[in-house]
Amino acid sequence: MMALSKKKLEQEPSDLEMVLPWHAAGTLSARDARRVEEALAREPELARQYAVIREEYAETIALNESLGAPSARAMQTLFAAIDAEPAREAKASLNRVPHVSGFFASLSPRALVWSASLAAVVLMLQAGVIGAFLIKNQSPTYQTASLGMNESSVNAPVTRALGPPHDAMPRALVRFKPDARMSEITSLLDAYQASIIGGGQSGMFRLQFNGGGITKDEAASLIGRLQQEKVVSFAAASP
Amino acid sequence: MSATAVTDEVLLSRIAQGDRLAMQVLYGRHHVRVFRFGLRLVRDEQIAEDLIGEVFLDVWRQAGKFERRSAVSTWLLAITRFKALTALRRRKDVELEDEAANAIEDTSDDPEVMVQKKDTSESLRRCLTALSVEHREIVDLVYYHEKSVEEVAEIIGIPENTVKTRLFYARKKLADLLKAAGVERGWP
Known about the structure:
The complex is a heterodimer of chains A (239) and B (188).
Chain A: H1 15-18, H2 20-25, H3 30-42, H4 44-65, H5 72-83, H6 96-106, H7 109-137, E1 171-176, H8 182-191, E2 194-199, E3 204-209, H9 216-228, E4 232-238
Antiparallel strand pairs in A: 1-3, 1-4, 2-3
Chain B: H1 8-15, H2 20-42, H3 45-62, H4 72-91, H5 94-106, H6 109-117, H7 120-130, H8 133-144, H9 149-156, H10 160-180
Helix pairs in contact in B: 1-2, 2-3, 2-4, 2-8, 3-4, 4-9, 8-10, 9-10
C-alpha cells in the first residue's frame, strides 16, 4: 500500500482509509476489521486519522443523544390514526410461516434441544401407530405376485422385498451441537436422506439413512462426513 | 430457561395481522431513534414528531409487505428518510439549509466564539449540525445508527462505493468547517 504520508489530498482515498468510520463503529466484518487493525499498526498517519474519527464518532453519538425524545402526543396521535384504520381481515393461513419460523428463532438453544427431543419422541410414536395400523390391516390390502387372495394357500403368502432389507440401511448415533437450529438439523437430514428413528436421551439421536444397500466402506465414509458437519458434535455408526 | 425477546421480524408479522400490542412494542423499541434521525434531517421538532407518526402508520399498513432482506431498523430508517426528504421538499427550504451550512464557514463571528470557548467537542457538534442534509444523514447512519456499508447503501439508495466516498467527503467537509472555526485536529 502506498504510504499515506506521501498521499496528496487531491488523490482518491484508499479503501482502508474510507472504511475507518465503520471500524470505529464496529460494523466491519471480522476479516476487514483485521485488515484495518494491521494497517493501523503499520501506518502512523492512518492511526492519527483514526483517532480523529473516534472523536467524530463520540460527538455524533453525544449530539444525537442530546436531541431528546418525542412527546407522548406523537404516540397518541399514531394510535388514534391506527384505530381509525379499517379493520383488517385475518390472514392466518398466509402468515403462519413467519409465525413458525419466528417461534423457532425465539427459542434458546436449550429449548431447541428439548424441542428436538420431543419432536423425535413424537415421530417415534407416530411411526409406531402407523406401523401397528399397517400390520393389523395388511392381509386384505395386498396381493402377492404368485397367489390370488382366493387361493387356499393364502395363509402362507409369498412376499417380495421392494427395497433393501431394513437391516441393510446404515444407522448412526448423533449428537447435535447445542446451538444447532431446527432448520439446520432439517437441512442436514434432507442432505443425508436420513430420518430420526429414536433416541433423544442425553441429546443423542439414532439416525437411519434411507439410501440402503451400501458397502461397509461407504457407510464408514458417510459417518465420517457426518462428523465433519458443523451442527454435529458427535457421530458414530450404530447397529 | 431464559426468556428471549420477540424479534422485530416476529413483531412485524403480528402487526401484519392487526396486532396492536405488537405495534406498541415495535414503536417502543424504535421511535426514539426514528425521531432523532428525522429531526437531524428536518431540524424541526414538530415536523419530526409528525414524521414518526407517518413512518409508523406506514409500518402498520405495510407490515405484510416487509421483505426480510434487511433488518427492521434499516427499513424504518429508509422510510423515515423518504418522509423527511418529502417534508423538506414541501417546506422548500433545502436551499436555506445550504445557506445555513455556508454561514458557519463564512462568517467570522461563529468561529471566533468557538475559538474563545476552546471547546473542541462543542465545535464538533456545531459543525456536525452545520453539514448538508446529504452529509448529516450519512454521518448519523454510520456513527449513531451503526449501519454497515451495505445497509447505508440500501437506506439511501446509492452504490456501496458511493457510500464510502460520500462519508469520506462528509468528514472532509466537517474538517473544513472546524478549520474555519479555528479547530485543527491534525487531519487532513
